[in-house]
Every structure is written in C-alpha cells, then in structure tokens.
Amino acid sequence: MIVIHHLGISQAERIIWLCEELSTPYEIVNHTRDPVTSPESLKSVPGNGLGKSPFVHDTETGVNLSESLAISDYIIYKYAGGKLALRANDPHFAD
Description:
Layout: E1 2-7, H1 12-22, E2 26-31, H2 40-43, E3 55-58, E4 64-66, H3 68-79
Parallel strand pairs: 1-2
Antiparallel strand pairs: 1-3, 3-4
Helix pairs in contact: 1-3
C-alpha cells in the first residue's frame, strides 16, 4: 500500500488523484503547513529528513520517494503496469 504524506495545497494532490484513477490502495497522512518552513511532523517521517511533500512510502517494497513526477512514474509502473503512460522509447512518446 502507498502511504502519502500530504501537505495541504501541494503537489500531493496529484498523487491522490493518480491513486484514485488507478484504483491503487493508499493511506493519507495529513500534515499542517508551517508558514516559514517544512513542518516538523513531515521532517520526522523516516527517510524524509528534508520534509518534502509529497512524500510516499510503499509498505509493500519499503521504497520512499519524493517529487511528484518520480512518485507518479513509480506508481504507474509498479501498480498499473504502465497504464496511462508511454515508455520513452515509444514512437508516440513525444506526441
């Protein structure tokens, strides 16, 4: 299962949408935005010392990822067999 560490009004919304679209099971852990820096609750998540959001942990594989595009690619290929995406060597990739 994917655990999404969510910071309100952030790119984490993309990850939630993707999981819903692909019917991928997930859990959301909400964090409250700090007006100056990343909240301590997000920095204290194992593997996320910089407090980045979105940040996901895959409980099945132990993989930790930040950055929405990297997370999206991981979910698309790990949980959906590439559904919704083309590989870079696909002739229609640039279209």
